[in-house]
Amino acid sequence: MNKTALLTLTVALGVLTAPLALAVGTPELELITTTTSEVGTSYSASITSLVLMTLLAFLPMVIFTMTPYLRISIVLTIMRQALGLNTTPNTKVLVSIAVALSLFIMAPVVQEIGEKAYTPFSQGQISLDIAIERGAEPLRQFMLNHTMPSYLETFLQMSGQEYTTKEEVPLIVLWAAFVSSEIQTALTIGFFIFLPFVIIDMLVASVLMSLGMMMVSPMMISQPVKILLFVLVDGWILIVDGLSKSFFIG
Fold this sequence. Notes:
Helix content: over 70%
Low-confidence stretches: 1-40
Largest sheet: none
Mean pLDDT: 76
Strand content: under 5%
Number of domains: 1
Distance between the termini: 25 Å
Number of helices: 11
Number of strands: 0
Radius of gyration: 23 Å
């Protein structure tokens, strides 16, 4: 991820930590806070840098739970298990693939954050608090678009509060609903990926038993067959294409 992408995602992170990071009302911070102007409340360069560096620490958490990463990583892990390849590719490779695909899918969102928040902020047109507010909106809209309504309603009921529109839903409620919805979706996709390979295992086991080869492990025969089938049908591109379209279309 390049520097611009990191910074633009960091701006979006601020909506979660802004109350603590900016410490509004803290006497020490107020001493170095300038007066509010048309571009918002301005802070000194050292405080702004400190806030941005602090928010960068939350970047992995945001990538893992506010982007397609969660769905993609679960599906890829299930796919690896279905093929019987418990260590190939290894976990680090799967994580890298999931991050790469997540950034590919999130490219329009990152670009929108850059245009609405990072670029004006870097040029001094808006202050940090306004940049945080603007940068959070595309990420919020992305989560709204890909959260199951039933999950959002459930978490709204659990919060004990009522909201007339989706735009009024607190980010923490939307975040929890999005994570739960993504897990449900990933497990559903994983089931349909796993099912054909289970059928292959059952067929191979039945054939070996009918031939009286009960001492032969079905895995020795079924695993090469599953890998061959996966390669012949271009399984990898089908999974990647399906995962990507599930976000672009949704």
